Amino acid sequence: MKIGIIGTGYVGLVSTVCFASVGHTLVSIDRRDIIVDSLTRGIPTIYEENMESMLQNTIASKSITFSSDFNALKDCEVVFLAVGTPSLPNGHADLSQVFSAIDSLLPIVSLQTMIAVRSTVPVGTISRIRNYLASQGKQAQMLGFCPEFLREGVAISDFLNPSYLVFASEQKEGCLLLQKVYQPIIDKNPEVKIVCCTTYETAELTKYTINSFLATKITFMNQIAQLAQSSGADMSQLISAIGADRRIGDMFLTPGPGFGGSCFPKDTLSLVKCGISYGVDMSVVEAVNHANERHKEYVASWILEELEKHVYVEGKTIAVWGLTFKAGTDDVRDSAAIKIIRSLLIRNIKVRAYDPKGNQNFQQQVGTPNLVLCSTPIEAIINADALVVLTEWPEFSKVDVSLVKSSMNGTQPFVFDTRGILPLQDFKQQGFITYKFGI
Ligand code: UGA
């Protein structure tokens, strides 16, 4: 099938290379020539595991064309919209990119081409689009919604091995057409659950519900971890017990410095706004957002308070390993590292930070003279008084602990692990004063 995708962010680019890899012919549109040039040369504009090789293979097999010209979408059977829907200052999702893409598309595609929205949108948006199409004389335009459930860092694997797919179309043949696009993936994953929704609102709310439910689960576990820390309970044992309860499940229970990224913060906020629009109380998810922000502050205060029991923190140097909101990505949007590092800088602490993929993006978010971004983990700890781990990159768990010790300042440096990935026993043996949050 000839498929178009508008937008080359995480969702758009992953969808493009994955659909091309299963045999479709893809046209990928981005208005920015610099992005089109880079992708045409096989250089990904985002970091995602296996992206570079898949991009280059699918370009070599002539399965993808990148363009800034919407006319390239002529004759596509389905055009997916994977443009951004960032939060506006008032918390509502900004839908301007969605409507602008539709306006650009309408003069080009026929009524039989399905416009399938893949961007995450507030409940009621696709019905608004249907009404807009009707107002433009295009009431017969094929329309669908196909939310994505991809985790950054493992997005390609999630795309090619889904456990469920959600399609929505109010037109009789709509879901069948979306299923046809996914058929090569469905064939390889016969267990996949396919849910065809008859109203757009069902699929829109499904997407928000999943992300908000997971954000709630993590935030709840972060608060339980605070309580465990204060009371002396062991989180690893607690998680292994509750994870064995099939009604709860063992995923998304790992405490950390607070959730971030481009999805959970935005989608939980947007769900609250949807509740307000429909006059429905969304206080649970509202509380999750507040609790997550307070949790990041809790982690920063915990580090500072523990240090203050031993040293005068002003003027000290702290090394931070991990700046991205999770491992496997270069994305620092709403990363806990932003708030936590700012809390350290405000106390006149010098921060030397390292991330395998996120340094450049972080520099754009928090650039002050007291923050030095380093190109290796060892460079970051030189003469540091304490080390704080904020992202669970596997390379941090494999460090040479004696080298870490000899590079740091003093005979008893401090180490804070907020992700439960360091071999803290080895650090202890080397003379470190160790702290862990959660597991
Ligand atoms: C999330 C969802 O997991 C995807 O299903 C969804 O498609 C995506 O949002 C989206 O809407 O596009 P993502 O934000 O990439 O994916 O990352 P997650 O793996 O869900 O992690 C989100 C945050 O929760 C990270 O900050 C992570 O460190 C944190 N987290 C996750 C924990 O603190 N503990 C956990 O046990 C799991």
Protein model, in words:
The protein has 439 residues and is an alpha/beta fold. The chain is built from 17 helices and 14 strands. The strands form three sheets. The chain has a six-stranded parallel beta sheet, with helices on both faces. The longest helix is centred in the middle third of the chain and has 32 residues. The structure holds uridine-5'-diphosphate-glucuronic acid.
Ligand names: uridine-5'-diphosphate-glucuronic acid
Total of helices: 17
The description of the largest β-sheet is:
6 strands, parallel
The amount of helix comes to 40-55%
Distance between the first and last residues' Cα: 47 Å
The average pLDDT score comes to 95
- How many distinct beta strands? 14
SS-based structural class? alpha/beta
Strand order of the largest sheet: 3-2-1-4-5-6
Computed Rg? 24 Å
Which helices and strands occur, and which strands form pairs?
Blueprint: E1 2-6, H1 10-21, E2 25-29, H2 33-40, H3 51-60, E3 64-67, E4 78-81, H4 96-105, E5 114-117, H5 125-135, E6 143-145, H6 155-160, E7 164-168, H7 174-188, E8 193-197, H8 200-231, H9 235-243, H10 264-278, H11 283-308, E9 317-321, H12 336-346, E10 350-354, H13 359-365, E11 371-373, H14 377-381, E12 386-389, H15 394-397, H16 401-407, E13 414-417, H17 424-429, E14 433-436
Parallel strand pairs: 1-2, 1-4, 2-3, 4-5, 5-6, 7-8, 9-10, 9-12, 10-11, 12-13, 13-14
Helix pairs in contact: 1-3, 8-10, 8-11, 10-11, 11-12
The structure holds uridine-5'-diphosphate-glucuronic acid.
